[in-house]
# Entry
Amino acid sequence: MTYPQISQTLSDEFKNTQVDIVKLINVCTFSHFIEFIQIDEPLKRLFYEVETIKGNWSVRELRRQINAQTYERIGLSYDKKELIASITSTSEILLPEQIIKDPYILEFTGLETKAKYSENDLEMALLNHLQDFLLELGNGFCFEARQKRISIDNEHDRIDLVFYHRVLKCHILVDLKIREFSHADVGQMNFYLNYYKKEIMAENDNPPIGLILCAGKNNTKVEYATAGLSNQLFVSKYKINLPSLKEIEEFIEDELDELQKDIKGNN
# Structure
């Protein structure tokens, strides 16, 4: 049996991909289309159309991915396939791996990518736009402190930013770096985490999580530096500017090819 092409409601690019109407009806509801229509940019709308069908996203999940700026995050990601594969359709986020993003998009700070600025400048920019930063971090993050002092034997260290996550029920310690990731950053963060576990963590808390937020990273170096640690420690990049359309176009073309292969294989 041959089915008509996808509804005119979707973008012109997607309607020409020969997606059958049964597949569309099985995944998308009227509420899905309402969400699609509200996306003005055709390429962005196409991305969410494709991923909704591939991932069988509910309307709630579609909205969550739009609010999480998944489209922009894919464009900035070093490994786009790995990032999209890590996205699940669970209604509640329960694991640290699902809460920590990579990369973080900080275009709201107003900082220029190539401008000279210090870690303090970045910290102040984030705090001056705290509401935007909390939205970028995601649901459950509660701001607790900046430049949190740790004192041992009259020696003082400071954690850049401290949050408490109400879903995970743990502290999340953030160390800001305006440079590439260094393996030495892990030792510093591990020290902070061990201190929090012994001195700060309450009886009903889960162990703290560390996030090193840096301008760039080598994934192999991160893997070797964090292997074997008992603490949960993540390294993520941040991006000041949004990705180019060309990067996202290439990714969506690959996704469409895979979607067509899946559909042909099921027919």
